[in-house]
Request: fold
Amino acid sequence: MSYTYQIKSLEQYHIDYKKSIDDPAAFWSSVAENFSWQKKWDRVVDWNFKDPKIEWFVNAKLNITENCIDRHLATMADKPAIIWEPNNPEERTRTVTYAHLHKMVSQFSQVLKNNGVKKGDRVCIYMGMIPELAYAVLGCARIGAIHSVIFGGFSAQSIADRLEDAAVEFIITCDGAYRGGKDIPLKAVIDDALIGNKTIKRVIVYTRTRTLISMIKGRDVWWEDEMDHAERQLEANDIINFPAEEMDAEDPLFILYTSGSTGKPKGVVHSTAGYMVWTNYTFVNVFQYKPGDIFFCTADIGWITGHSYILYGPLSAGGTSLMFEGIPTWPDAGRFWDIVDKHKVNILYTAPTAIRSLMSYGLAPLEGKDLSSLKILGTVGEPINEEAWHWYDEHIGKKKCPIVDTWWQTETGGILISNLAGITPAKPSWATLPMPGVQPLLVDESGKEVIKKDENGLLKGNMCIKAPWPAILRTTYGDHERCRTNYFSTYENLYFTGDGAMKNENGFYRITGRVDDVLNVSGHRIGTAEIENAINMHAGVIESAVVGYWHHIKGQGIYAYVICSHIHSDESLTQNGILQTVTRIIGAIAKPDKIQFVTALPKTRSGKIMRRILRKIAEGETNNLGDTTTLLEPDIIYDIIKGKL
Ligand code: WTA
Reply:
């Protein structure tokens, strides 16, 4: 198998880029020809950003699992689709061939059907990183159910909110999950989320940790029993292949919740055909994937990176995707390097936060590890600082592996701006050039294109995109207006990313970070309003304001300024109480790193909290607070500075 649409030179990149902009329909239909369709499209794209209404491969019919599995069986049945590395290095690795993946996904599709799941139903998946998670996701896609994977670190309350928002009726989970030295009691968290819930019809539970759990009569069933039954049913009918549902190109494939600047996470909806074409195209081009390469994306499938570059991108390309259950620092900080050595990984795709964390252990964890199989490295999730980039280049890539810095978002479905490994130039900390089909535009606050360069010859502004690429989000679940106001109304006729960026004389982009009230903590997006809402739930808290500050490992740390009606004489008790509350309401990932008790917050006369000032104080830039004349009570700033942690 080779990829006819793989860009092989810088010159070809420029030619393809130009074609994709001059005639998107011709360009994307020639890429889409390489997939398997039950019916081809009538038109390639219809769109307007006003509503917004975006359709790709209009009226085409397909099933994404036929593209990710069935079409590879003729030539690659015995080739590994997924290589699974367990949390505990002593446990056996599992290799899932395309033939086995086909069998498991077919069987699980039958299980879903037996349990009453139908096309269009929403299915919540809350599992650890095990192959069964892949079967669950792909099983949903095969029967046309919409999966909504929730990361294992979210709390019962967060799950309950998401279940309600998407009117979910079915859940797939595990008794527990292993992550490093911990067992996470997934089923117990689901049980808490379901207290009082009347809409959930079925919970399917896979046994992973043998943790004692309660199974509720009439609602909860065991994965293993259901799979055995489905296997017998399929065999009795001489079927090994559960038929794939015919899906419209624009049928929703999944919902994935992500944080914005308001208090409530949004359910980003991706559709089928455009998402498939884009994840495949970007996977093959950015990573310059060659058949047989072992691709290791270290993300969790609970985030978009796992959806697009552990599952759909690699599998649609007939690739081999390494899936890791554990964490980079357990049993020790050499775990990634052991995995690279053991499985002869060729492409490693990870996050700057993981690189910084591993850097902090020095070079000892690398000793004796053979990393010579590595050809290409990648990063995603947040801006990579130059120090981390150089460490990755020198100590992991041994200066021989191109590094791709891939910028994208949950809403974009796949990579939008990145160098192509070894094909287009790399520049440390710069995502560089847009993918074909992507037209970035930097605008000022009023939405005008930035044309004036700064003293360093750079254009700086808010990052927008002028036209849709195939995997742009289609809506936010149950609330299209929210999708419009969030992404398409800030600037007329533009998709607004929420990121700030600069552009140099070569047309390279560097993403500088969010310009809205969204934090990026260890590569995970969390809205400040969401954290404030959780803190404010704690008894005794009157008001709070949350900002980000530079954290040497997490990229951004969470700094909370909190006004309490009373603070325990042992302040740490009140602090721990707040941390517990945040963990309960959102999950441990949203716990503030620092909590400073204050008596007042800096506000404008109209009552708006001046976060700019709080951000500067948290960063320690107290000499340069900017204009404070609009503050209601300018003096409180001095107290806040005095109490800075
Ligand atoms: C940030 C993750 C700089 C950015 C795929 C974006 C990056 C947010 C990069 C999306 C990068 C992601 N350089 N910043 N290479 N990649 N970001 O939705 O602020 O979890 O808006 O998607 O991460 O985070 P999300």
The pocket of WTA is lined by residues 258, 303-305, 380-383, 405-410, 431, 497-499, 511, 513-514, 520, 525 (CB under 6 Å).
